[in-house]
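In the previous chapter we treated chains in isolation. Here, by contrast, the input contains two separate entities that must be folded as one system, with a combined length of 301 residues.
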Amino acid sequence: MNIYVINGPNINLLGTREPEIYGKETLEGISKECQEKASKVGHSVKFMQSNYEGEIVEWIQDAIINKVDAIVINAAAYTHTSIAIHDALKSYSGYKVELHISNPHLRESFRHVSFISSAVDSVVAGLGPDGYIQVIDLLSELPIKVN
Amino acid sequence: MSNGKLLIINGPGLSDLSDHNEVANDDLSLSVIEQKCIETSGEFGLEVDFRQNDDESELLRVLVYDNSNFDAFIINPAGLSKSSFIDYDAFSAAINKITNQGKPVIEVRIENIFIQGSSKPLRGNDSGVGLVSGLGKYGYVLAINSINKKLSNN
């Protein structure tokens, strides 16, 4: 299974950004763990991060063109603002998971609205960096269509 | 005190899942979910107490008075969070009390409630409750996997 893991703004600061909320693990560490888990269960994972909304939109469009089987997206702050990412995800017909390290619904009210949630199949939040690993692991068990 | 016991509580209306569209469109029932939970937990040596109750005050009582008997919690509040007869703040406070002890609590929803739009996720202060929505019975599997990892790291 081909999987894109797409990360949004400020996620490159993981490990130093508010570690009491996001943990001490770095993005490089999470990426490495994702790759390890993926190779164990036979997936191919492309792990990406961008601070630019348009670049994230283009990666989702790439996923459409390249017939990627699943997208795991942590759109970070763009979750609460980006109709462009919502639209791009709507155009992608593979399996889509919205992921967050913390649970936005337990935080400031401006994080309670997600433009992503209604455009994806499922939402996983608040499980820490381990959420990425758990989702990649579970994708092999889910009965989803693989190209 | 760690005892490897996991409480899974399912709220009002979850006894009948016949109108739920499962991820794979396979037949979904609460006993299918229970079986999956027992299997998954068994692989980790975790013991599961799987319950469903239409009585909202009973759910609150379990969280308030029985929480010391368990190491981790999976809650599917179902109809509870939509329009509840019980004090919703009391429900959140009971959950916060559990997470403050460092015990994992994960809210699991069978369907993606954000598409359906009829239910809202648990809200509250930053209590560290996890959320898994839209993965059908596999949502419970993911939650148990995550809980196992958390408990083994403690």
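Chain A has a mean pLDDT of 95. Residues 27-41 of chain A form the longest helix (15 residues). Compare these points with the single-chain example from earlier in the chapter.
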